[in-house]
Amino acid sequence: MSNQHSAIGLFDSGIGGLSVLKQFVRFLPGENFIYLGDTARVPYGNKSRQTVIEYSKQCTNFLLNQDVKLIVVACNTASSVALDVVQEMSSVPVIGMITPAARAAILATQNSKIGIIGTRATVTSRAHQDEIHSLAGDREIEVFAKSCPLFVPLVEEGMLHHNVTRQIAEEYLGEFEAHGIDTLVLGCTHYPLLRQLIGEILPNVELIDPGELAAIKAIRLLAENGLLADDAKIIGNQPNADFYVTDIPDTFFDIANIFLGFPVRKPQKVDLE
Q1: Is 148 one of the catalytic residues?
Q2: Active site residue: 68, 143, 185, 188, which one?
C-alpha cells in the first residue's frame, strides 16, 4: 500500500517528460520520484490512438508495481488520448497534462484567444481545445492549434539558441500573431526548453507550461489525501529520483542534463511487454 513515503511516478514516451520532472522537483523537493521513459518506442506522437493507449497501460502497470502514490502522465500525447484509460485502471490518483494547462490558460487570457502548440497527435486529438471549451462554460473562447514537429529533434540536439531553430519557430508561430492570441499552451514536454525563444517571438503572450501546473495540482492532491512527504530528500542538486527506460540512447545523459539542468544517475533498462 502506498503512503506518504512512496514515490511519485511519472511516465513519458521518451526523455521529454524530464521537463515535467524538473517542475515536480522544484515544487515538491521533499518527494521521491520514479521516472519511466519509453525510449524504445518514442515518439508516441505519430502512433495510432490504440497503440498509445496500450503503451500507456504498460507504463502505468510498471509504475503501480513500484508502489507509487501518484501517477503523472507526463506525455501530452498520452494525456490527450489515454488519460481516461489510465485513470480507470489505476489504484492511485492520476494527473495528466491537459486539464491543468487548459484551466490555467482560461484564467490567463484577457482577450479570450488561446493558442496551442504540440505534436500532430496532440493537436489532432483536440484534447486541449475540447477541455478549454468545456471548462470555459458560457464564456466564448477562440482556440488556435498548431503542430510543431521539428521542435522535438531540435531540442534533443541541444539547438536551443541556433539560428535554424529561430527560423523554424518564426515559421510555426507567425500565424499566432495574426490570430492575436494573448496566451499560448506549450503542449509538448520539449517545448518549455524553447520558452525563451518563443517568448522573444511572441513577447506579449503568456506562456503556459503544463508541467508546472501539474506539479501545483499534485501538491493540492497529495495534501488532501495526507500523502505529502514530510522531509526534504534533495542532496546538493540531486533529487531522490530513480530512472527507468526501455532503451538507453547514447545521448541519454546529455539530453537529461539539458532538460533537468543537473546530472542524473544511470537509468535501469526495463521491458514493459
Answers
A1: no
A2: 188
Residue 94: how many CA atoms within 13 Å on its side-chain side?
25
Strand ordering across the sheet containing 70-73: 94-95, 70-73, 8-12, 33-37, 241-245, 268-269
CA dist., res. 73 & res. 53, Å (int): 12
Pick the CATH number of 8-96+212-269 from 3.10.180.10, 3.30.2010.30, 3.40.50.1860, 3.30.420.40: 3.40.50.1860
User: What Cα–Cα distance (Å) separates residue 207 from each residue in 11, 167, 198, 204, 253?
Assistant: 23, 19, 9, 9, 28
Find the mean pLDDT for residues 230-237.
Answer: 54
User: Catalytic residue among 72, 75, 127, 256, which?
Assistant: 75
CATH number for the segment(s) 98-209: 3.40.50.1860
Q: What is the per-residue pLDDT for 265?
A: 83
Would the pLDDT of 126 be above 80? Answer: yes
Judge whether 75 counts as a catalytic residue: yes
Average of per-residue pLDDT across 121-135? 93
- Mean pLDDT within 153-182: 94
| In the chain, ranges of CATH 3.40.50.1860 domains | 8-96+212-269, 98-209
231 DSSP 8-state letter: S
Cβ proximity of 245 and 4 under 8 Å:
no
Q: How many CB atoms lie within 10 A of CB 87?
A: 15
**Predicted local confidence at residue 257, as pLDDT:** 86
Average pLDDT score over the chain: 92
Average pLDDT over every residue of 93-99: 96
Q: Residue 5 and residue 188: Cα distance in Å, rounded?
A: 30
